[in-house]
Amino acid sequence: QLVESGGGLVQPGGSLRLSCAAAGSYFMAYYMAWYRQAPGQERELVAGISSSNIPNYLDSVKGRFTISRDNSNQRLYLQMDSVNLEDTAVYYCFAFMGESYWGQGTQVTVAS
User: Fold this and answer.
1) Under DSSP, is residue 7 helix (H, G, I), strand (E, B) or coil?
2) What digits encode the pLDDT tens for the residues 16-44?
3) What's the rounded Cα separation, in Å, for the pair 92 and 79?
4) Which of 45, 48, 88, 103 could tie 93 with a disulfide, CB 3.0–4.6 Å?
């Protein structure tokens, strides 16, 4: 089970930190990621992090977003800095190790 938190309303140029709490075992072995889906658009990978802590990012968020994981507490984070209007979307936590798991999503709205 994956449960996201931390979404909300933020002004352009502001920051937000998303969290994902994972239940179950072997969290450290999972590939973890954040996806997002804006209205009328397909879901896209924002940032992922491997079990060996290697991150990958969508080009448009490189240098602004940072993904990290806390294996001891089974949590995934997404630090979002310098947000812009195009970052408005529902953000989903994702886990994969043979099977895929999704959280319910958390809304991020960037508006002045």
Assistant:
1) coil
2) 999 999 998 888 889 999 999 999 999 99
3) 14
4) 103
